[in-house]
Amino acid sequence: MPFAWKITVTGLGLGGFAALAVRTLVLQAMFWRMEPAWTGVLLSFGTGLIVMVGVPTAFAVLVRRWLRPPATFTRAGDGAAFVVPGSPVGPGFQAILLMLVASYAVPFEKVPGTDRIGLPGDPALPWLLALPALPILVALAIVWLPGTGLRLTPAGITVRRPLRTWEIGWDELLPGGPHPARRWSMRLLYRGPGARPRSCRVPMSGLAVDAVFLATVVRHYAERAEHRAGIGTEAELERLRAGFARWSAAGRPAGHRAARGGAAPVAAAQPM
After folding, report:
1. Residue 82 belongs to a domain
2. Out of 32-36, 131-135, 243-247, which region has the weakest mean confidence (pLDDT)?
3. Which residues cross the membrane (predicted)?
4. Which residue range(s) make up the domain with 175?
5. What is the secondary structure of the chain as a DSSP string?
6. Is the separation of the CB atoms in 188 and 177 below 8 Å?
7. What is the mean pLDDT of residues 171-190?
8. 101 & 122 share domain
């Protein structure tokens, strides 16, 4: 995820968390004093709903051009690979929702003898504060730690996940793969040590590339070894884009609709 998007996601998530915490610790007491009582309940629910819906909606507006990722790759600086940049969409929504939900774990109590609300005067308060702190830390890790990445070279495909990296040679991919591309993930089947079948899941929501385009290209290179040497060059990238565009014009719309709702067919090697 680009640095600017990391700042944006962090700001939106923590801002939403702070707004909901203020609602709980400051505004809630005012809502309780309202008459009739249902008006306070309605305002309390309404302010929470505005933040819970408004923050993700604002993020969706900001990332609207990323919601339909492009059918192309980025060339590596050395010209020896195609790389897929990270997308802020999947990790961003995950992190923001985690931080918003964390606000509902903030401990509070009515201050004795007053009509104010505050943090509990309890020796276990540090442990209680860990309840909202944990999802916030997880959200920040999603945003700031290295996310999903993909690199295609003449030798094979490298899939980078936060906790593990797979390096799979083109000849190791099992015939007929990858599995039909889905909106959120793609599964690669390959031969592991001892020729045992293994799988690697690629989370598409974290990548800025069209899922069907990526699946089609991977299958193409697995089946057509003569084209692998051109990976990383501008000419090869143009060939892939042109071939995929021809296939799209010839009937991809139905497949694209399937990809949005579930699985989409992966084109065979011929379109490229």
Report:
1. no
2. 32-36
3. 37-62, 82-105, 125-145
4. 149-264
5. --HHHHHHHHHHHHHHHHHHHHIIIIIHHHHHH-SSHHHHHHHHHHHHHHHHHHHHHHHHHHTGGGSS--S--EE-TTSS-EEE-B-SHHHHHHHHHHHHHHGGG---EEPTTSS-EE----TTHHHHHHHHHHHHHHHHHHHHS---EEEE-SSEEEEE-SS-EEEEEGGGBPTT-SPPEESSEEEEEEE-GGG-EEEEEEEGGGBSS-HHHHHHHHHHHHH-GGGGGGTTSHHHHHHHHHHHHHHHHHHHHHHHHHHHHSEEPPP-STT-
6. yes
7. 75
8. yes
Cα–Cα distances in angstroms (integers) from residue 178 to residues 87, 157, 175, 239, 249, in the given order: 21, 12, 8, 21, 22
**Total domains in the fold of the chain:** 2
Do 163 and 123 belong together in one domain?
no
Measured in residues, the chain has a length of 272
